[in-house]
């Protein structure tokens, strides 16, 4: 693929991803390649490439009779994705705690301060989700395990839609996440890695449970 197509593909992918995550393109919505190409003023090639990337992230699926559609929010997918998150992230955090430095803690605290400001200003959920990912990634980076970090990033791309859903609709969702982040950072500072891992696993499991409850309530 040429650099021009790569740039166009990225533009289309980011546009569609943002619209899916915001709910502008709801579950089950058809994604017509010709219509999208006209709307975004590109050829069909970058549109198809973008849809294939979104399929790899779990946001789009191709069907025999309807073409590309936005994937449904499904309980079985939530169970699998958040189970994998719990396994990988807990193990990575366990290996990271003893290697964390004051720079790690300072960066994590700065992100929590941004979280406070975003909460007070009523910033959109996209900002909350971004800060959530940055906070966790900052803690895990200390482990020095690039392959694990890459896998975590890939799984989080697929989880992003569910995380935003939980932050947006769960009662006390953002405030609860903020409290647990602060507690997690405190445990890491104290090198209490076993307790930190338990808290992280509960944090992830609770998020999965919350999303499933919201789906069942028909939000």
Automatic annotation (TrEMBL):
Instruction: Write the signal peptide boundaries.
Output: none
Q: Where is the HTH gntR-type domain?
A: 6-73
Cite the Gene3D superfamilies for this sequence: GntR ligand-binding domain-like, Winged helix-like DNA-binding domain superfamily/Winged helix DNA-binding domain
| Gene Ontology molecular-function annotations | DNA binding; DNA-binding transcription factor activity
**UniProt superkingdom:** Bacteria
Keywords for the protein's UniProt record, in alphabetical order: DNA-binding, Transcription, Transcription regulation
According to UniProt, the name of this protein is GntR family transcriptional regulator
UniProt source species: Aeromonas diversa CDC 2478-85
